[in-house]
Amino acid sequence: MLWRYLAGAAAARTADEMSGPALLIAGLAVTGSPVVASWLLAGLTVSAAAGGPLLGVLLDRARRPGRLLAGCVVAYAGGLLVIVSGLGRLPEAGLVAVAVAAGVVGPALTGGWTAQLPTVTAPARQDRASALDAMTYNVAGLAGPALAGVIAGGPAAVLVCVALLAAALPAAWTLPAARTPPAAVRARRGIGEELREGFGAILGNPALLRATAGSMVSCAGTAMLVVSAPVLGARLTGSTGPGALLLAVTAACGLTANALVARAHGPRRWDALLVRGTAVAGAGMALAAAAASAAVSQATSATSGAAVSWAYWVAVVAAGVVGLGEGPQLTALFSVRHREAPARLRAQVFTTGASLKITSFAVGSAVAGPLAAYSVAAALLTGAAAQAVAVAVLTAGRPRSG
Fold this sequence. Notes:
The chain is an all-alpha fold. It has helices spanning about 1-30, 35-45, 50-60, 65-85, 90-105, 110-115, 125-150, 155-175, 185, 190-205, 205-235, 240-265, 270-295, 305-340, 345-375, 375-395. The chain is globular.
């Protein structure tokens, strides 16, 4: 059952990672307008902040949460189909509205799916299962954007997203029933009350609050790297392609690090690993900033070509260091949530956390764009500083034994 879950999660998350770039490509290819393309992407992500907590309540209430998860997969796929079939035929404002509606269920593909992990694994194997689950995010982060880039034709990439979601559907539908059946009294309570309880579970638990707040700050910093990577590649090599390679290196190293975590035996100090992973990611971003600065300082020298080549390989190493930190960081975050979240509120904790991270990434991206245009090094240093702030948040008030 665990491997079926992991296969479905990997397919759904690859589609999730692929859908944004695919919509950008399709919107630009069909309409020729970068404005329309960017609004489709924004619509798909902006509504996640509202959808996540509500989805969490519904998943926590469900006796068979997998059935609801399958419905979310169908809704997301249906939204993508409406958009791709309506490009150039339907009003653009209406398609953006469809993207917003589809984005509401987006957190189900990330946090909502992870919240179901305890139903398919024994408690004694929860740590290893969390590491394997985090690896599906690394696989998706590596494969999703790459598939969107190599598939010919804008609409074709969106159709591949739909196919991946269809492949994930059986795994979602056959997830076991909740181990702790929802109490009948909960069904009589208002959703607003349950939303307050879910947020209260995060705010009232120091470990959960630190992990949630720290991951939000860290995710905003990660956006600096994602936005800066294509610009950095262009500055160092003259092409944006090598910038995409930097992100692939980050994802591959994250996958490798999580594979090592999954193979480790014995108890883990997840709170400490969360701090260390964040610190390593920050060090990688600082190294990438140094590579960007070195290239700029050598740009007018007689050996500028060699300097730029050297700087690019430093950037590759830096991207790998970021991945070595981000991989275990994600595993540790999931493990802290599984450990601390009340069983009856687990889905809400996970989907709310996913929504907050998506929102933080969107804010970081909005700041990173103009900052990277001004100075790539400054944007990357800002990302490194964000990781340092995240470390401070994660360690504030934490017991030394954690």
